[in-house]
Task: inverse folding
């Protein structure tokens, strides 16, 4: 297959981008796809922790961009899945050390070897975030079902349509919404937005709905993607389905707790 560059992004911090990057990356790699994960959150790296690789970091993304290290020296091979690799961010450098040319070279080199390159973006619209999305073919916009998170996601959609290499060539980045921390009981009580509300505001296809669960936090704390640490859990199954949709498979969508599958009947075409 042709290599695909995916940016996992959001306007708001704390919505689950790093968890999503790890879970989707592991799910794709479990399907025998060769996957490279890149942490773009310079100065605040966490992807190495979530992947359980923090003690194995020698070189990082900025070392490669600046020519201090070669890409193979900085890539960390996952010990659990043969086809999964991590390129960590620097914990000590400034985001300004990232350059567009340097990031472009790294992405181009990874495209030669990997099926999927998943970029874990910092939140917001500053330099690290715009460089993380710069060379993307596809974007996964992570949002919580709350007004401020959805509003910030709308701004990110605008950037994807204007600041990416594809946009400048008159092409479109494929965009998908991933709703995290969804609680059907709270949505029913009006304490958070419904799935329909989010889709109406963002007018972007839905990749998946990740239910609120302690399993996600537990997986992060033990340094393992939830798709590996607890594959039978609700979040893991939702991430595995989302990864299949990312590959183009037609996987039915249902709201957690929606036993009547009303969502499929009302919004099936839009969610596919």
Result:
């Amino acid at each position: 297959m042709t290599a695909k560059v995916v940016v996992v992004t959001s306007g708001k911090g704390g919505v689950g981008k790093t968890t999503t990057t790890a879970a989707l990356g592991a799910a794709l790699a479990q399907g025998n796809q060769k996957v490279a994960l890149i942490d773009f959150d310079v100065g605040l790296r966490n992807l190495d922790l979530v992947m359980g690789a923090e003690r194995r970091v020698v070189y990082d993304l900025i070392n490669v961009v600046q020519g201090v290290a070669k890409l193979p020296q900085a890539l960390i091979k996952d010990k659990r899945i043969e086809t999964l690799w991590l390129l960590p961010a620097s914990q000590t450098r400034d985001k300004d050390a990232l350059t567009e040319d340097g990031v472009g070279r790294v992405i181009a080199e990874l495209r030669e070897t990997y099926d999927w390159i998943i970029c874990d973006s910092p939140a917001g619209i500053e330099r690290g975030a715009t460089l993380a999305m710069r060379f993307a073919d596809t974007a996964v916009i992570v949002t919580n079902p709350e007004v401020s998170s959805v509003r910030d996601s709308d701004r990110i959609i605008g950037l994807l349509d204007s600041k990416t290499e594809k946009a400048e060539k008159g092409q479109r980045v494929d965009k998908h919404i991933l709703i995290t921390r969804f609680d059907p009981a709270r949505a029913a009580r009006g304490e958070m937005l419904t799935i329909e509300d989010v889709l109406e505001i963002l007018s972007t296809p839905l990749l998946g709905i990740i239910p609120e669960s302690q399993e996600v936090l537990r997986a992060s704390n033990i340094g393992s993607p939830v798709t590996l640490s607890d594959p039978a859990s609700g979040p893991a199954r939702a991430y595995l389905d989302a990864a299949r949709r990312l590959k183009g498979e037609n996987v039915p969508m249902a709201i957690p707790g929606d036993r009547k599958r009303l969502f499929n009947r009302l919004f099936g075409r839009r969610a596919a």
